[in-house]
Design brief:
single chain, alpha/beta, Rossmann fold, seven-stranded parallel sheet, globular
């Protein structure tokens, strides 16, 4: 396999979609993932099987690897020339970080450092990595801009993603390692995660169970469809930042840029619930609850720099994306 692109978290929601998008345009991909049991391992393996069966699947090489273990990572990739890396693997979830903080330190801090060292050692020409809109914390100014201060995270998950950005900045400064950090905003769509709102709401509606509605429904989210996100990652990969006298987006003068990938249209939670209800063909019972620890009432991406530098703008409205998720959900559970 010549000039493969390494994708970490390849069995994950975003990683699998990005791997498929790379294969569809003719790239070769090495995917790594430890396939842990944070959520259904069967779902993760189904994603891998889907990639292998997709167009170009012969150019996909999956290796079950825990990238938070440096020796294991280096051994699995010994002798592989890695000019481009897309680092999407992480321990996700704001709420789970309250229960198992050690998992976030291991995967998101040690794991990110291991990828930085791998990239430095292999002379990687561009490392694209996943950050999160969670880094904006309780910012009241909207829309959220990459120029905003992000030094007051309201969850440990957010703190680890901000720490990743800072580690990447140091490596860009010290070693001139070109890097792009992407702050994802509430990604949803087919093959999504069972711990996320679309899956929870859809499954409970079909089972006739009440759905939890936090902050009594006074929530807005910048929901971003998975296909749009995958194209945004590829757009970033193809445009590595350079060092310059005037700062890159995110404030670095080193070859390190940070961009928002969001729909740039916050949607009221109750509106989205109504769309899901219509797609399911039945009404939901709403369980109104207070705000959860670590959560925020609103997310809203400013994507001006993303449009300007990467030529990316999402095209999928929630009125289209959520029904597509519900259709996939029904089909997946008939086949599973």
């Amino acid at each position: 396999m010549s000039n493969p692109i390494l994708v970490t978290g390849a069995a994950g929601f975003i990683g699998a979609a990005v791997a498929e998008a790379l294969l569809a345009r003719g790239d070769a991909v090495i995917g790594v993932d430890n396939c842990n049991d944070y959520y259904s391992v069967a779902l993760k393996r189904s994603r891998i099987a889907r990639i292998e069966a997709a167009e170009g699947g012969a150019r996909f090489d999956f290796r079950e690897v825990d990238f938070s273990r440096r020796d294991e990572l280096e051994h699995a990739l010994a002798g592989v020339d890695l000019k481009q890396i897309i680092h999407l693997g992480a321990q996700p979830g704001v709420r789970y970080s309250l229960q198992n903080p050690g998992a976030y330190a291991q995967a998101n801090l040690t794991g990110h450092l291991n990828i930085l060292e791998l990239a430095r050692g292999r002379g990687t020409e561009h490392l694209v990595y996943a950050s999160s809109s969670s880094v904006y914390g309780g910012n009241e100014k909207v829309p959220f801009s990459v120029e905003d201060a992000v030094d007051h995270p309201v969850s440990l998950y957010a703190a680890t993603k901000r720490a990743d950005e800072l580690m990447s900045e140091s490596y860009a400064h010290l070693y001139r390692l070109p890097q792009t950090g992407l702050r994802f905003f509430t990604v949803y769509g087919p093959w999504g995660r069972p711990d996320m709102m679309p899956w929870i709401f859809t499954s409970r509606i079909f089972r006739g169970e009440p759905i939890p509605v936090f902050n009594h429904g006074e929530m807005e989210r910048d929901f971003t469809y998975i296909d749009d996100i995958a194209q945004g990652v590829l757009a970033a990969l193809d445009r590595p930042p350079v060092a310059r006298a005037s700062a890159n987006p995110g404030g670095s003068k080193a070859p390190h840029a940070i961009y928002n990938l969001g729909n740039s249209r916050p949607e009221p939670l109750l509106k989205v619930i109504a769309i899901v209800e219509q797609a399911c063909g039945r009404k939901a019972t709403l369980e109104m609850l207070p705000m959860q620890m670590g959560d925020v009432p609103r997310t809203f991406a400013d994507i001006a720099e993303t449009e300007r530098d990467l030529g990316w703008r999402p095209t999928t409205p929630v009125e289209q994306g959520f029904p597509q998720f519900v259709r996939w959900f029904e089909e997946y559970h008939r086949l599973a």
